[in-house]
Structures
1.
Amino acid sequence: MKTLDDLLGEGVSGRRVFVRADLNVPFDKANPGVISDDGRARAVLPTLIALRDAGAKVIVASHLGRPKGAPDPKFTLAPVATRLGELLGSDVIFAEDTVGADAQAKVEALADGQVLLLENLRFNEGETSKDDAVRGAFADELATFADYYVDDAFGAVHRKHASVYDVAARLPHYAGGLVVKEVEVLRKVSETPEKPYVVVLGGSKVSDKLAVIQALLPKVDKLLVGGGMCFTFLKAQGFEVGKSLLEDEMVSVCADLLEQAQGRIVLPVDVVAATEFSADAQHDVVEASAIPADRLGLDIGPKSTELFASAIAGAKTVFWNGPMGVFELAPFAAGTRGVAEAITKIDGFSVVGGGDSAAAVRTLGLDETAFGHISTGGGASLEYLEGKTLPGVSALEK
């Protein structure tokens, strides 16, 4: 797989470089158009700066949200162009379409060292189409814009989309520094993790994490389970879980996993149980084996946080994906905070597996540099650890 360094070594001054970035940033629900977390935009800066400073004409493309293959003002990348310009310290030109007249004109007018951001790729149905011909036709149009292709969107490499998979087949292609780093880190924790190896999983559903649990269980010393998914495991132990999130169809699967693990799966011993899903709801710490029928668990409790922190303390490798509770609501953030802080203190290598975990680090104001690596791709990270082929990575390797 050729890298950005290889491309820079060949020389890009005056050449057009198409950069697939992951600018799928979250917005403040109370203030439309205001980015609440620009972590993904900051992650691609080194690649954009290197190309800009080398004199390339940089064409950046990304998706945002899930529009239905047509323009939707709710998902415009215009605010992202503004923020990207602020981060780069220079104006970012914005094209109001993907491959239409505005994009074509602005690509043609690009000067050396300028950066252009195309409108949301998913405004074109060809981006996500499962029809190879439709997807390929869109990729053909995108490929006419550039001389080279750089993929630095690790958060999208698990998708067989036009800008991720098909454009790479049409241009000389290179992996950006972010993609290279992500693959190196995930290869390390999946193939050669230093022991003891502890994995911390949270999030809402067991079904979403089943494949990664099955892939990692033979490799780990401890698998700590929190978040909404823990209640299906607790039910598998014979405990009642009240109104907590529960996947009935997964209870027997969890029972089998607990038997296979032979004590290596660690579950909460207490939880913060509330009367409803609200920051203002009445809530108390209860034993995990005695959740009241009219309550739902929204965080792991203090004993569980101590238990998890103790298991983490001696680890040489930690992989964390998924919060321990509803960290966005202050009364239910302590478990996630406590576990995250424990991870920062290990004498070893830690990986935050993107998604809500990465968002939690920033939302809770934790020191990002205290973690070994914070991934930009939650779904891509999990699929890599499951052993799946990532289309965007395989395209770069061809």
2.
Amino acid sequence: MSLTDRILDGFKATLGARLVNNIANGLLLLLLARFLLTNDQYGLLFTIISIVAVAQLGADLGLARSAARYISEKKETEPSVVPYLVRTSLRYRMLLLGVVAVVLIATRDILATVLEIPELSTLMWLAAGYLIVQSLYSYHMSLFQGFNRVNLSAVLEVINNVTRVLFVVGLTALGLGVAGALFGYILGAALATAAGLVLLYRRFYTRYADGGGTKSLRNRMLEYSVPLTASHSANILDRQIDTILVAFFINPVAVSYYVLSKQVTEFVLVPASSLGFSVSPAYGEEKANDSLERAARIYETTLQYMFLLYIPAAVGILLVAEPAITLIFGTEYAGAAPVLQVLSVYVVFQAITGVTTQGLDYLGRAKTRAYAKGVTSVANVGLNIVLIPIYGVTGAAAATVLTFGLYTLVNVYVMHSELSLDFVRIGRSLVLTSAIACGMGLSVLFLVPYASSIPALFGVIAVGIAIWGVLVTASGVIDPRQTIAQLT
């Protein structure tokens, strides 16, 4: 199978899974926000999930991604050490998990006092359980990526997200509130983790002759996990600490506005994250084969598609945010509309970063990315502290856009230093796609006042997509027939 075919197969599997996952999560989001939880409870649930995500940093420490990087390399050149890499990384992961879970439980009263949310003291017991299963789930996701079997990662995602919906909705409908919802998250991740253990053991661990490993290999894996830890930690700070700061400076209701807006952007970003997850191992393979020029063309083409999808998407989100939020989630979430409008710019930056960062890890540039992420994440925290008291939850969104935009530019520059990108080609695609977005945006702007009901809203969105399709085809920026042929 050719490299292109493998990338496309992985992309299709990952995209299909993430579409299923996001439909499931979108349904869960709608049911929780509109029917099952108050906006105060909704904000509390995702405050806890953000705390768990930050705590997970201490349990992960970049070990899974470091192991995945070495597995990707060694399975081609020295396959007998693969079982050693799996065994060693899992052993360290379990040790760290135990320590962090104990710390999380021990500090539950302090968290409840600092955030002025008394319910946290009790709910942190469930949060510790969620930390354990979620961390092990993400471990398997990373290792399957290292084996270049992202289709198996896709299977785990479907198991986690679909069963999560069933458990969360069922337990919350029984009147268990936030505790029931959190326990539903635990059950979904636990089932995916169990499936991951079985697949990892049967498909990979026993497939390779176990030749053991050396302390040198273990130390290199641990050493490479340091910059991965730094960059991943900074990424989590970017994505989660702002939620905690909103809870600290304002209240869980404001958290619900912020989290809801971010969840909408995550739904839109499914194609970017799917493609980035699928294509990233190819950069490491091409570098190992001294085919950097081919890797550069792959990345440039990937960027071209990201521009084509997400610059128009950002314009559309900016224009329909207000009617979409109030019609779909209710007027009590109207405060999320300006937040979503600001985050429309973040969508473009996140799409570019989504197809860049993991590729840099496989190219061996995790340390450089970690420095950039560390600086921008600290800046993000500082801007949040300054802007939230002044502008409220919209200030948190603005801080995210400003700092993440800078991080995106640095990532692209680092990728260029590795692959010598053709910026003329990239710039031409950016200008042409921006023109297409403007043409589509003018049409949607005229129709937005008529979006007074959910069917009318989706009608406006459908018209915008149709106009986008016509402009893309007329511009010749891609050949639709060739694209459809590749994806089928």
3.
Amino acid sequence: MSSKALGKSTSAVEITHISKNGVWLLAYDKELFMAYKDFPWFKDAPVGKILNVKELHRGHFYWPDLDVDLTVEIIEHPERFPLKAKYT
């Protein structure tokens, strides 16, 4: 008897860890770290709002409850994209 996959994964992205330093996003077997100093919108957000992430298209993520959208490039190289909006 062999095991077969039951179906295609319905979620290509997920939050795998939230810590005092930041948030880890798993996308296509690649883990991306978002430090709060670079992504302050997540620091004081409720866990449920952080976990609610959608992929608009491959490599472009959106948190509807926080109205935050980020790409893999922004997450990997935040220094190239200074914050444009004020965080309060």
